Amino acid sequence: MKVLVAHASRYGATQAIAERIADKLTEAGHEAQARPVEAVADLAGYQAFVIGSAVYFGKWLKEGTDFVRRNRASLAAGQPVWLFSSGPLGTQTTGANGRGVRAGAEPAEIAEFRESIHPGHHRVFLGALDPGKLGFRDRLIKALPAGRTLLPEGDFRAWAEIDTWANEIAHELAQAPIGRRAGEPTE
User: Fold this and answer.
1) Which residues does the UniProt record annotate as the domain Flavodoxin (predicted)?
2) How far is CA 104 from CA 4, 81, 143, in A?
3) Which domains does the chain have, with CATH numbers?
4) Which has the higher per-residue pLDDT, 186 or 39?
5) Could you give the angle at which helices 109-117 and 62-70 cross, rounded to 10 degrees?
6) Spatial CB neighbours of 91, under 8 Å, sequence gap ≥ 6
7) How many helices and strands in the chain, by DSSP H and E?
8) Is 104 exposed, middle or buried (0-12, 13-18, 19+ CB in 10 A)?
9) pLDDT tens digits for 3-32?
10) What is the mean pLDDT of residues 155-176?
11) Cβ atoms within 10 A of the Cβ of 66, count?
12) Dihedral sign for Cα atoms in the order 89, 92, 94, 100
């Protein structure tokens, strides 16, 4: 099955997650391509989609959100779709409010996407922050006392968890007839 793993990534951490997912899907026998959302002009020819974005301040990057909205009709047409977000940083599992860090990190757009394109799953993965790659605006935010707390440096991505999710997608793709969403009951 031909799978597009589209990503919106500012500094490369989300791109690396997308590439890892595409590699795992390819290992499982699917034809998977990881591509930046800006490089995808047409969804024709793909039979499944995994779409991810980096998350900043509780929202997907504009490029990722625009991609889903622009392709809403195609993504809602019946092929399997999965979404992922990359963003929370650090090793804490619960936030100050006592909720799970990732549960509270679901981006604002995901509710809209669930309603409009009906993805099979949405996963939030921990991200990575390399201060040497930060742009001017993000360096300014990082320089603030609150910025240092909100933006800890390091690679917090859980590769085994990402691999497990990609393998689950590969399994669902193998079980889903073309034109039926993964996870949908068969008649």
Assistant:
1) 4-141
2) 28, 22, 25
3) 2-175 (3.40.50.360)
4) 39
5) 20
6) 156
7) 7, 8
8) middle
9) 999 999 988 899 999 999 999 999 999 999
10) 91
11) 14
12) positive
The 3-state secondary structure of 34-96, one letter per residue? EEEHHHCCCCCCCCEEEEEEEEECCEECHHHHHHHHHCHHHHCCCCCEEEEEECCCCCCCECC
Which pLDDT band holds residue 157 (cuts at 50, 70, 90)?
Answer: confident
CA dist., res. 106 & res. 114, Å (int)? 12
Give CA 97 to chain center in angstroms. 25
Closest among 116, 62, 113 to 84, alpha carbons compared: 113
Cα(62)–Cα(54) distance, rounded to whole angstroms? 10
**What are the pLDDT digits (tens) for 27-77?**
999 999 999 999 999 999 999 999 999 998 889 999 999 999 999 999 999
β-pair partners for 50:
5, 82
| Nearest alpha-carbon partner for 52 in 44, 43, 61, 39 | 61
- pLDDT (0 to 100) of residue 162: 95
